[in-house]
Amino acid sequence: MAVVNRQVLLKRRPTGAPTIGDFEVVDAPMPAPTEGEILCRTIYLSLDPYMRGRMNEGRSYATPAQVGKPMVGGTVGEVVESRHPGFARGDFVLGYDGWQAYAVSQGVGARKLDPKQAPISTALGVLGMPGMTAYVGLLDIGKPKEGETVVVSAAAGAVGSAVGQIAKIKGCRVVGVVGSREKCEHVVKELGFDACVNHKAEDLVQALEKACPRGIDIYFENVGGGVLAAVLRLINPNARIPLCGLISEYNATTPPPGPNLRPLLVNRALIKGFIVFDHADRLGEFLRDCTGWVREGRLKYREDIVEGLENAPSAFLGLFQGRNFGKLLVRVGDDPTRSIASR
Amino acid sequence: MAVVNRQVLLKRRPTGAPTIGDFEVVDAPMPAPTEGEILCRTIYLSLDPYMRGRMNEGRSYATPAQVGKPMVGGTVGEVVESRHPGFARGDFVLGYDGWQAYAVSQGVGARKLDPKQAPISTALGVLGMPGMTAYVGLLDIGKPKEGETVVVSAAAGAVGSAVGQIAKIKGCRVVGVVGSREKCEHVVKELGFDACVNHKAEDLVQALEKACPRGIDIYFENVGGGVLAAVLRLINPNARIPLCGLISEYNATTPPPGPNLRPLLVNRALIKGFIVFDHADRLGEFLRDCTGWVREGRLKYREDIVEGLENAPSAFLGLFQGRNFGKLLVRVGDDPTRSIASR
């Protein structure tokens, strides 16, 4: 076993766009579990847009990351030592161990994973927080009805790709908004969206108008900026807009103005911010439905896996440039379930 | 009886702020009811911000007013001739006869008023569309809970004054936003609001912060512009924002930008546009509750009555400058119920 614990620390809080210099890669001493604790070896680290908020001091829905401590984040790991009755050496667990190779925890909130059910990495993506975000945001706030038109931004991302496919399962017309031709092709050809708009290449209002001949009933908002303004010009009466993320604005030092809200008034429409953690009561249904859909091939996912914890900072910065394609993960350590499968 | 029918026509569709020249006062021939129709003499005409939208050609939630025809609007009148089995001469009715002294209609949607129950003018205000807008917007979208803080803009207006008082009845802390010192005093001293902010005299964020020491749970939006942006900085988790009107923006030729929506995301908050006509199923409960509260003196109202139909255009323009104080009405003809009462 390793004798040091590689970590990526938050070195300083960024102003505006984060840079590589805001992080520091260090080798810390190996932690040791005491009674009631487990030691986990990180296999996968999830990189998610919400982490930009954790780098700030300001008020948000969760405690900020601490300067000089490892960045926070969801992880899939393997228990290498257990002094906790609920976990055994060799267990795979979904946890929140942060940007580090090893972590000691009391296992609070950790969930054991069965590699036979689904690849363990999916617990950070389509069968994890991003997938559940898509599921509750679309179903509980968007409330899609058969035949309605659903638009989703960041449609090739971890959340957006699940939103669109679940909307298809529910019988909707689904239109993605993405930032490249390759992503457009992917969501239409691989994921089965009805249409896709490349906001970097097309006039957004015109392209959406063409892709949504019956207007827009649901817009699942991941990005902020111009897409929402364009969508609002095309919403139908009683439209619903689950507000999941505003990634284009997370690095802004002064918040940009938003769209004019008159279309909400005229159309009796709804914008509702939500955070997946508030919907923990839906975990069972989410796992049942989405695990089933993944197995049936109706809910596909793509992972963008970066090798090595030391590459986490640059991969994270790429999230804000749309560089990732599918769920962004860092492989921090060897995945024994994958080696076994490929042997 | 009069031999001509004075009318105010929409002469042309305004661009930006309407002017007196967009209206034309004419004396048309008296209409005569045929079988199944009634002829009503208008006593009160309601002037409401939504009428600005009816002057436009564009898509909205209702058919636009027609150029060369009387402006549309709610009215309280007296049946002077009836060839309809449901109405008798002398009946007082709430109708939608528009900006004219007399109108023939089939009585569709007209509601008979009992002057003994409440002054007939209230059917256009606190016990009419504006009161019901306050009632359903606050209760059904805002869902106030005892002890919560409710902020309402245009708080001295027909809708805002009812919102604040109903919120007080529901046990909330209520803070108004208005545009003059006199209105501030009125809503606090006469209507019982806990505090009031004059957005023309005070720094809005600072003043709201002081008036809302426990943050803002509900913001009833009537005006648009800077108030919503200031409120969003102070909303609590799970805040609700019924979006009723955006009067400050109705004359804009290009829609101004809106507020940055990040506070909605972080606070899982909701903005929901609504239109009172969608909530017709609540009419009975609204009338029961609000008639009771008016009688008990818990729901006060103030009427700003302009004399003479020919003065309707200038009074209407004043709405957009905040010139009215309470429910703006035009007395088009003699109110016999009032004469009786004052004799």
Task: Tell me briefly what this model is.
The first copy, chain A, has helices at 51-54, 129-142, 158-169, 181-190, 204-211, 226-232, 262-266, 283-295, 312-319, 336-342; strands at 4-10, 23-29, 38-46, 75-82, 92-95, 102-105, 111-113, 149-153, 173-178, 195-198, 216-220, 235-243, 270-273, 303-307, 327-331.
Notes on the structure:
Two copies of one chain form a homodimer. Chain A is of the alpha/beta class and 343 residues long. Chain A has two domains: 4-125 and 302-342, Alpha-Beta Complex (Quinone Oxidoreductase, Chain A, domain 1); 129-280 and 287-293, Rossmann fold (3-Layer(aba) Sandwich). Helices cover 26% and strands 25% of the residues of chain A. The first copy, chain A, has helices at residues 51-54, 129-142, 158-169, 181-190, 204-211, 226-232, 262-266, 283-295, 312-319, 336-342, and strands spanning 4-10, 23-29, 38-46, 75-82, 92-95, 102-105, 111-113, 149-153, 173-178, 195-198, 216-220, 235-243, 270-273, 303-307, 327-331. The first copy, chain A, is globular, with a radius of gyration of 20 Å. The model of chain A has no long low-confidence stretch (mean pLDDT 94). Chains A and B meet through helix 7 and strand 13 of A and helix 7 and strand 13 of B.
